[in-house]
Design goal:
elongated; CBS-domain; Transptr-assoc_dom; transmembrane; 4 domains; CBS domain; CBS_dom_sf
């Protein structure tokens, strides 16, 4: 070493520190790289991304080649610093101690912390770059890495640990995908993000959550006179109407209003004509997930179903549009919708109907009313109080103050909801 000029030794030291920094940066970049972005880049033809994925598929060998060179370079740098120190200042113990501190500082700053911060901040881009030299080194020194990993594998078995080879180890759960969508920022437009988030909730939402409740169903009573039925048909908002005989549970069919129009052009309408036009009703259990129901609608070529409970009692009605609106939001104005009129007043309150669905209220007013029990505001208040309240009674549910404005016929008709105060 004495025959090598001091300037050359200093240049070698700088080179060793730079190499150590490269391997430190490569280690962090490869471990922090987003595998899904790499896979996307590889599908678009990026060779660097494909090499990076191949290296990440054999993590033990990847870490083996990186740490092999990193430790060799760091040991060489420490030795070289000691040689330079002895040449300049002698071999006294305090001098060697200071040289050890100096080389530790140099390695920490220039070969460890700084490169690793760079690697972590630009992981995806750097992973594609460093995969080329790492792949070449691994191929050239495969036997050495394989030999070292034999001892690593033996130590892992001794500790009763096993390296994961399960291809499912890097798959994402539904909640992880949901978090990725929420944190996508400008990569996904807000409207698209809302639709994706709604998709994740489909399995947790039943037809009972989105149905039109029984007392809000627009239906025809075939037991009425033909004049009453014609008046009803002339003013209805929908093209398909349930037809019942006497009481709502006795549904006899579904009437397509356009067929009635064609019939009246030929001759006068009668009750028997309406009976002949009825289609068979399609009944749905209340607990059916709306994702499954969407498939059922498609398979059975239906657009409307009647929701019933376990005893066969009619609970409500759900349409294909109701399910689609759960995904993309309101898109039709064929019938008046009380939810669309809801907005906070100047006094921080809003007047709402007791039959309003809790999901619609939460979405429209930004509330967090519980959805795991009753589906309507009336049911939520009755369950909370365990009694039928009188007008003027106030409750606080999930931090939302609610005042009963009108209650009659054993149900709550109108309530006033006050905007919840943010926590101090």
């Amino acid at each position: 070493m004495d025959s090598i000029p001091l300037s050359a030794q200093s240049a070698i030291l700088v080179t060793l520190l730079a190499l150590s920094g490269f391997f430190s940066m490569a280690e962090t970049a490869m471990m922090a790289a987003n595998r899904y972005r790499l896979r996307s880049a590889a599908n678009l033809g990026s060779r660097g991304a494909r090499l990076a994925l191949e290296l990440l598929g054999q993590t033990d060998k990847l870490l083996g080649i990186i740490l092999l060179f990193n430790n060799l370079v760091n040991a060489a740098a420490a030795t070289l610093v000691s040689v330079i120190t002895i040449q300049l200042f002698g071999s006294e113990e305090w001098v060697l101690g200071l040289s050890t501190l100096a080389v530790t500082f140099l390695i920490l700053v220039f070969s460890e912390i700084t490169p690793k911060v760079i690697g972590a901040n630009h992981a995806n881009r750097l992973a594609c770059f460093v995969s080329y030299p790492l792949s070449a080194l691994l191929k050239g020194l495969y036997f050495i890495v394989w030999f070292v990993n034999l001892f690593v594998a033996g130590l892992l078995r001794l500790l009763r640990l096993r390296a994961s080879t399960d291809p499912e180890a890097h798959t994402l759960s539904t909640e992880e995908l949901r978090t990725m969508v929420l944190e996508s920022g400008s990569f996904i437009p807000p409207k698209h993000r809302s639709i994706l988030l709604n998709l994740f909730e489909l399995e947790d939402i039943t037809v009972e959550d989105v149905m039109t409740s029984r007392n809000q169903i627009e239906a025809v009573n075939i037991a009425d006179s033909i004049n009453v039925i014609q008046g009803h048909l002339a003013t209805c908002y929908h093209t398909r109407l349930p037809v019942f005989d006497g009481e709502m549970n006795a549904v006899v069919g579904i009437l397509h209003v356009r067929r009635v129009l064609g019939q009246t052009l030929d001759h006068s309408l009668s009750v028997s004509d309406i009976s002949e036009m009825l289609a068979k009703p399609y009944f749905i259990p209340a607990s059916t997930p709306i994702y499954s129901q969407l498939q059922f609608f498609q398979e059975n070529r239906e657009r409307l179903g009647l929701v019933v409970d376990e005893y066969g009692e009619l609970l409500g009605l759900v349409t294909l549009e109701d399910i689609i609106e759960e995904l993309i939001g309101k898109f039709t104005t064929s019938a008046p919708d009380a939810t669309e009129k809801l907005s906070w007043g100047a006094d921080g309150s809003v007047l709402a109907d007791g039959s309003q669905h809790l999901r619609a209220l939460n979405r429209k007013l930004g509330l967090s009313l519980p959805l795991d029990g009753p589906k309507t505001l009336n049911g939520l208040i009755l369950e909370h109080l365990q009694d039928i309240p009188e007008s003027g009674v106030s409750v606080k549910i999930a931090g939302v103050p609610i005042e009963v404005v009108q209650a009659e016929d054993r149900r709550i008709k109108n309530v006033r909801i006050f905007r919840p105060q943010p926590p101090k």
